[in-house]
Amino acid sequence: MKVKGKHVILSFVCLVLGFMISFSYQFTKDQLSNHKVTDQQWKQENVIRTQLNEQNEKNLVLQQELVEKQEKIRKIEEALANEEQEQIYYNLVEDVEKYRMVTGEIKVKGPGTTVTLEDASYVPSGQDVNNYLVHENHLFKVINELYISGAQAVSVNGKRLSHSSYIFCNGPVVTIDGSPYPAPFVISAIGDPNVLIPALNINGGIVDQLLQDNIVVKVENKAEITMEPLLGTNE
């Protein structure tokens, strides 16, 4: 009885174990069947993978183009920097030329204007004659206005002015850099006549002031004026 009882128990255990193994196998099989990749899914995945590879290749091409464009930009920036440097040098040369014109070191030729100042032809009886003569302050007014208006070079009665020129009255004449000059005084200026002349003739400007001081004024447009360089500088 004991042996039969053991066999019954053992048979029951084997039966349960077999059922569990069978159930586990079937369950696993069903799970695998549910997760099986279909041909359609495989094709879609393959398409996506191909598109991703193509996009990566395009990205590499775009990165290469970006590197090339950055290199072009760098070269352009270098060229611009060189041009700016050249422009700086060009501006310096222009400035040097302007300073040489002012100091009278180089010959200057170009269009411009002349301003002739003369003493009054008539002095009323009992009036001070000095109030009807051209003085250095009259010359200064014209010369300063011409320089302010862009004159490149200025001369008085053929005497070219420099940065160290001096003008003062000396009796009936005006002395310019040590040389005496009588009236009339012809002030010549090289520059744009379309700028110089309107600057002189502006209402209430230099010409009007000179006329109020009884000075005879004549302003003329000149197609060409030539001024030779100064032989020496005045200290």
Describe the structure.
Helix content is 54%, strand content 20%. The protein has a five-stranded antiparallel beta sheet. The chain has a three-stranded antiparallel beta sheet with strand order 4-5-6, with helices on one face. The longest helix is centred in the N-terminal third of the chain and has 65 residues, at 39-103. It folds into two domains: 42-106; 109-226, Alpha-Beta Plaits (2-Layer Sandwich). It has five helices and eight strands. It is α+β, with helices and mostly antiparallel strands and 235 residues long.
Please summarize what this structure is:
Helices cover 54% and strands 20% of the residues. The chain is an alpha+beta fold and 235 residues long.
List keywords for this structure.
single chain, about 240 residues, alpha+beta, Alpha-Beta Plaits, 2 domains, five-stranded antiparallel sheet, three-stranded antiparallel sheet, 5 helices, 8 strands, rod-shaped
Question: Which SSEs are present, and which pair or pack?
Answer:
Blueprint: H1 2-34, H2 39-103, E1 108-118, H3 136-148, E2 153-156, E3 159-160, E4 167-170, E5 173-176, E6 179-181, E7 185-190, H4 193-201, H5 206-212, E8 216-227
Antiparallel strand pairs: 1-7, 1-8, 2-3, 2-7, 4-5, 5-6
How many DSSP-defined strands? Answer: 8
Q: Which parts are unreliable, with pLDDT below 50 for 5 consecutive residues or more?
A: none
CATH class category name of the largest domain: Alpha Beta
- How many separate structural domains? 2
Task: Please tell me the overall pLDDT.
Answer: 81
GO molecular function, one term: RNA binding
Keywords: Coiled coil, RNA-binding
Protein name: DUF881 domain-containing protein
Organism: Fredinandcohnia quinoae
